[in-house]
Amino acid sequence: MRKTKIVLSVLLFLLLAVALGPLALPSSFYEERLGPVLQRMTHGNVKAGQINFEYTPAPALIIRNVVLDSDPAVGQIERIVVPVNAYNVFNWGKALRNVTIEGGHFSPTYALSLPQRLKPEADTPRMADLGLVNCSVAVGKRDLGPASGKISFDKAGALAEVMLSDQENRLELHIEPKDAVFALTLNARNWELPFGYPIKFDGLLLKGIANSAGIVIEDIRGDLYSGIVTGNAQVSWGSEGWQLSGVVRTNGLQSEPLSMVFSNSTHISGRMVGEAKFAYHAVDYPQLFDSPAIDATLQFKDGLVHNLDLVSPLKSQGGNYGGGQTRFDTLNTLLQVRPGTVQFNKIAIEGGKFRANGSLAIGKERKLNGGFAAQVSSGSLVVSNQMQVGGELSRPQVRTGAAYRPRGGEASMASPQETAPQ
Fold first, then answer.
1. Containing domain of residue 132, as a range?
2. In angstroms, rounded to a whole number, what is the distance separating the alpha carbons of residues 414 and 189?
3. Distance separating alpha carbons of residues 80 and 39, to the nearest angstrom
4. Which is nearest to 143 in space by CA: 193, 111, 112, 105?
5. How many domains are contained in the chain?
6. Which of helix, strand or coil describes residue 87?
7. CB neighbours (10 Å) of residue 283?
8. d(Cα 239, Cα 283) in Å, to the nearest integer?
9. pLDDT tens, 325-383?
10. What's the distance, Cα to Cα, between the start and end of the chain in Å?
11. Residue 148: inside a domain, yes or no?
């Protein structure tokens, strides 16, 4: 019993010595020794603003205000936390575990060079893992992040993978170094696009390859408004600025929630199938989506054009009309998006005994300009009319002339070219 008490007392003394020992040494002791070690571990210059110990919530060595490569634009870290735990104490100088970087901000070049930066040397401690808390990467004049996660290393100490997630845990990014490139897998849930229009995906999966010049997204798969989105894309950056291009295909989307992203009042309901090719170019990332170039082929089935009635004016003797709706079985169109304008060309609408052909442009201040040749038939009676569409996207105005009722053998419908926007 007495021997047991002696053993327990010795163990308690050793634990107290481990916990209180760091207080007996000045901070300069750690600065002189940690500086060279950190530089060898990161293969670059590392300058720490302050080094001290904290004992709550757990004993840890805290390194504050770290600047990488003598340039905050290259990289800076608010805090590096090195736990004073049994593993780190008994493997001091050989290995470290549960180290955390908090508030890290890195340049893209530094982030992409991490496998080389953290490549183990024979005389430096090997990392078992490295935690990341609220870290970000500068992209142009903006930041990607903040994100949190973990960097894992293999048995030889080389970087094996990086796992990141956003603050809401809706976005997860898996990065795996492969020779001179990185394999990327991004999973998103209930995620809204951070650029352009607020389109929200139920689920999104991206797979691709990245290097210092850009990213090739080989596979895009998304669940969007009860339909499927697939495609591929590539983004590049460098001396010629930023470029993004690719193609996406949709199948079975509910078009109403998608079209209401652009206008709550004037929109299209029904099922949508389509393919779109897109290209963006800008000097810097923040301006990348300011100059769109999108060409799409779209088909809508079994729906309504809300806030635009092309049927009632056929019964009139002229005048202006607003509001209402147009039911259709199919609506086909070619879409072009350019800076300041959206153009719907070769619009073809069919719904029961009604059909219409035309085009429509949405210009500056969301002004409408377009026209349709439309007709409705009932037995042997066929009524046709030319319609001009103006006003604003939120309040379209349809203007018609007198309805035309052709006699047998006469042309019943004008060519769509006659109704092109003025």
1. 23-167
2. 48
3. 14
4. 105
5. 2
6. helix
7. 11
8. 9
9. 999 999 999 999 998 889 999 999 999 899 999 999 999 889 999 999 988 887 778 88
10. 102
11. yes
